[in-house]
Amino acid sequence: MLDVLPHLTQSDFPPLRRARLHTLQVNLGRLCNQQCLHCHVAAGPNRPEVMDETTLDQVIDALGALPFETLDLTGGAPELNPGFRRLVRHARSQGLRVIDRCNLSVLLEPGQADLAAFLAEQGVEVVASLPCYSRENVDAQRGRGVFESSIAGLRRLNALGYGAPGTGLTLALVYNPGGPSLPPPQTALEANYREVLERDFGIRFNRLLTLANLPIGRFGSTLLSRDELAGYLGLLKAAHQCVNTESVMCRGLISVDWEGWLYDCDFNQMLGLPLGAGDGSGRTHLRDLSTLMSGGLLEAGQIQVADHCYGCTAGQGSSCGGALSPGPV
Questions:
Q1: What residues make up the domain containing 168?
Q2: pLDDT tens column, 315-328
Q3: What CA–CA distance (Å, rounded) separates 9 from 272?
Q4: In CATH, what number is assigned to the domain containing residue 133?
Q5: Is residue 150 part of a domain?
Q6: How many domains does the chain have?
Q7: Adjacent-strand bridge partners of 68
Q8: Pairwise CA distance, residues 60 & 43, whole Å
Q9: Which of 59, 124, 64, 54 lies closest to 89, judged by CA?
Q10: pLDDT tens per residue, range 258-309
Q11: Which of 35, 123, 142, 272 sits at a 20 to 30 Å CA gap from 76?
């Protein structure tokens, strides 16, 4: 896979500083039952990186010691980590909001027959990848048969109450473009998703999140190999909206990798741009997080930026929570 980082670091992206920290986003590993073309993590079935029990215990310690409100679990497929359920139970017992960034097909994997029921029992918010309501587009981006298994996973979640009013079980779907373009307006696309998924499959959900593909990982490498990276970066920069810098996810979030190292966001994690390196302090580990936060050394601290950050501020904006503003695109 080609390294895109040298093409991103000479950047004119505006400086960013953290605001109030409320979310701990934890990457439980790069093991995944899928191998998607757009994946910025370059996850797949043969990736060996999985958070071990010692590091998972450090996550639990941090959640107990620090005033986080949300635990955001990602991967790979986070559910394939053997400690996933223990971590979820602990966080929910502490009253934290827990988000599971789920690829849907994992719900049908061997040994995961009760996974959907576990998520419902724990009141976990499911953020589910479904990059289109078209079988052809999903399978082209994520692999043959993934659309069918995704619909089966959604039906399993719906049967448990996800997406239904009054259940408290939130189901968000995630759209990302199939190539080097910006997402369409989120509100209009959500209406299309609702119409097609209800009409054709009887699927319901709470909201749609539109995410831009960031030029890193497999997607960035593909752009570079096709000599399209500069053009895509130009598109992102031309569509940059300053107002979106106020709401980007990195301002209220700390990202943890499978070994416990800290980053400003999941995208910086995948580029190897660690939290703290911007001020010369080197890498920072999860075991040091309590000291840093209690000493006020993180809030208002500088966030590492590079040209990939334009992917979060272009047009309507893009973050782990979807669009940041109503447009333009």
A1: 5-313
A2: 988 877 787 766 54
A3: 12
A4: 3.20.20
A5: yes
A6: 1
A7: none
A8: 24
A9: 124
A10: 999 999 999 999 899 998 644 455 788 998 888 877 766 677 788 999 999 9
A11: 123
